[in-house]
# Entry
Amino acid sequence: MAPWFRRIPSKEIAITVPDDLADRLAGEWEDLPRHALEALAADAYRQGILTSAEVQRILGFPTRFDVARFLKQAGVPVSYGEAELEEDRRTWRELGQP
# Structure
């Protein structure tokens, strides 16, 4: 099994929204919990809290290209900084690449 595919311990986060507002939001977005998760991931990336690799993990995207497409659609500028470079290096080492 690929290192990135193993089950990682996770936490469930709940939010409370008044019923009438939750119904209205759910009318706009088919999968309200997914939409909330995507908004959280995009904002955390925008603020430099999450790296693109972490956005990939939290949203379950198979490739970094999917992350770039998601961030572009969310209006978030994509950056490739030192944290992303180190994450790529770590992944290459885990895959047994030089």
In short: The chain has a mean pLDDT of 87. The helical segments are 19-28, 32-46, 52-59, 64-73, 82-94.
